[in-house]
Amino acid sequence: MLAQAVEHLIKNIVDFPDDVSVKSHENARGELIRVRVNPEDIGRVIGRSGRTANAVRTVVQAMSDHKVRVDIMDVRH
């Protein structure tokens, strides 16, 4: 459910929503959500001084009852 929420949030921010990929993994430290976007959208998703990325992380953590980490990267990685 969290991955779907992140995908919805990110797709509404970017210029290339078809390039957005969100995958969720469980590990010993909690849940990891990896977000991949088009290289041209990485600045838009991160925002000035990371404000947009931090806002997405805050929303996800508020929706969750456990530790969640959100990593944002471009499709080249």
Automatic annotation (TrEMBL):
One cellular-component annotation, GO: cytoplasm
Molecular function via GO: RNA binding
Domain of life of the source: Bacteria
A Pfam family the protein falls into: KH_KhpA-B
Keywords, alphabetical: Cytoplasm, RNA-binding
Location(s), subcellular: Cytoplasm
Function: A probable RNA-binding protein.
Family per similarity comment: Belongs to the KhpA RNA-binding protein family.
Protein's recorded name: RNA-binding protein KhpA
Source species of the chain: Bifidobacterium dolichotidis
Lineage: Bacteria, Bacillati, Actinomycetota, Actinomycetes, Bifidobacteriales
